[in-house]
Amino acid sequence: MRIPASRELTELPYAHRLEPFTGPMERGGGYESVHFDGSAFEDAQGGSSLFSEAAFSSAVFERGSLRRSRFDDVWLHTVRMVGTSLADTTWLDGEFTAGVLAGVEMHGAELRRVVFRQCKLDSVNLRGATLREVAFVDCLLRDVDFGGATLTDVRFPGSTLDRARFERARLAKVDLRDAAALGITAGLGDLGGATVSTPQLFDLAPALAQHIGLIVEDD
């Protein structure tokens, strides 16, 4: 996939149509051409909502749920989500820059043409999710769980994977060569379909040997 260049708010094609958000957020709401600028949500229940051509600047989500919501052509900058449910959400054409997702539930989510740039993902649950044409650029992914997920045309340039899990994941055209570090604690045997560099293969060799029960012993 070709990773699109980062954009400022004023560069968005719909920037001139954005209207400031006036709360509260509601379940099943429609948020088209809305700008969430500095908005703070605590235990918000906005599930099954539609966010279309919407922008989020320095917004904060504490807990709450946006489950089964749809995000079409959204721009998120310095957004913080802690303990929020994004389970079964659908994302198409999204840009998430300098954000934090901690303890976020994204299991069963579908993401297509989404770029995470300079983000921190900590204990994010992506089990059973579908990622297509997704890029993690200069991100930190710590304790991120891709178990049972389907990853197609996914890249990790400059990103650090720390204690990532890939059990029973299905990978195709996943490029790990430009990742800064590959810390994978589970699912090494399910990395078929991924491409790594020779130095990365050497780094993974001890864990791979342990995974298959290979004994390495020097005289």
Set out the fold topology.
Elements: E1 19-20, E2 30-32, E3 34-37, E4 40-42, E5 50-52, E6 55-57, E7 60-62, E8 70-77, E9 80-82, E10 90-97, E11 100-102, E12 110-117, E13 120-122, E14 130-137, E15 140-142, E16 150-155, E17 160-165, E18 170-172, E19 174-175, E20 181-186, E21 194-195, H1 198-212
Parallel strand pairs: 1-3, 2-5, 3-6, 4-7, 5-8, 6-8, 7-9, 8-10, 9-11, 10-12, 11-13, 12-14, 13-15, 14-16, 15-17, 16-18, 17-20, 19-21
Notes on the structure:
- The protein is mainly beta.
- It has one domain (9-212): E3 ubiquitin-protein ligase SopA (Pectate Lyase C-like, 3 Solenoid).
- The chain is 7% helix and 41% strand.
- The protein has one helix and 21 strands.
- The chain has one helix at 198-212; strands at residues 19-20, 30-32, 34-37, 40-42, 50-52, 55-57, 60-62, 70-77, 80-82, 90-97, 100-102, 110-117, 120-122, 130-137, 140-142, 150-155, 160-165, 170-172, 174-175, 181-186, 194-195.
- The strands form three sheets. Strands 1, 2, 3, 5, 6, 8, 10, 12, 14, 16 and 18 form an eleven-stranded parallel β-sheet that branches.
- The radius of gyration is 18 Å and the shape is elongated.
- The model has no long low-confidence stretch (mean pLDDT 94).
Give a quick set of tags describing it.
single chain, 219 residues, Pectate Lyase C-like, 1 helix, 21 strands, 7% helix, 5peptide_repeat, Pentapeptide repeat-containing protein
